[in-house]
Amino acid sequence: MLSEKGWIRALKGRLEDGRELRFKEGDRLRTLLACESTVRLIVLATNGRAYTLRAADLPRGRGDGQPLRLLADIGNDADAAALLIADEEGRYLLASSDGRGFIVRGRDLVAEKRTGRQVFTLRPGEEVVTALPVTGDHVAVVGTNRRLIIFPLAEVPEMSKGSGVTLQKYREGGLSDVKVFTLAEGLSWRSGEREVKLPDPSPWLAHRAGQGKPVPAGFPRANRFSPR
Fold this sequence. Notes:
- By secondary structure, this protein is mainly beta.
- It has a single domain, classed as DNA gyrase/topoisomerase IV, subunit A, C-terminal (Neuraminidase).
- Helix content is about 0%, strand content about 35%.
- The chain has strands at about 1-5, 5-10, 30, 40-45, 50-55, 65, 80-85, 90-95, 100-105, 115-120, 130-135, 140-145, 145-150, 165, 175-180, 185-190, 195-200, 215.
- The N and C termini lie close together (about 10 Å).
C-alpha cells in the first residue's frame, strides 16, 4: 500500500479496501495493490521516471512503513504517480497533465538502478498523472474542465519512451483521469460505494486529440473514474 505522502508498506493477506488502514496524521491511502511477494513493482513518478522495487523488500507490518524515497532515488521535486505490478510483456497507458500519452511495454519500465529510467519526456510544468494496465479497446479521458472524450485504443501509439501524442486538447486546465475499457461493456465509474455504468458512451465517441463534451450527469465531482 502506498500513501498520498509517499509512505509504502506491505501486509500479508487480503484487504477488500483500505478503510480500516491507519496512516500518519494528514496522510491517507493512495494505492492498494494486491500482489505476490515474489513480484517486482514499478513506481512511475510525476517526473516521468520509472523505478523498480521488489515486493519482498517492502517493510511489513501495521506500522507506518517507509518513505518511498529511501527505496528509490526519487527527487524531492517529484512524487509517485502510479504503482504497478511489473509484467514485462504487459502494456501500460501513461498520461500527462498536458493531455499527452502513449502505451509502453512493461519491460521498458523496468529499471535495475535506484535512479530509475526516464520514460516520459515532459515539457516545463508538465507532470505524469497516471499509468494503468491496458485492458480493453477504448480510452476515456476526462479533463479538469469536466469534458470527456472517448476514442479507440488503436489511436494511441506504443513507444519504449518519448513525449507521446495528444489524447485530449484543452483551452484551459489539463488532464484529470484516464480509463481503458471495453466499449461493448459500457463505461463505468465509482460514485461513493456504487459502481455507475454509462451504457451508451456513443455521444462522447470521437478521434484522439479532440476537446470532448461535458461529462454525463452524475459523474464524480473529483473528475476521476475511481478513487485513488
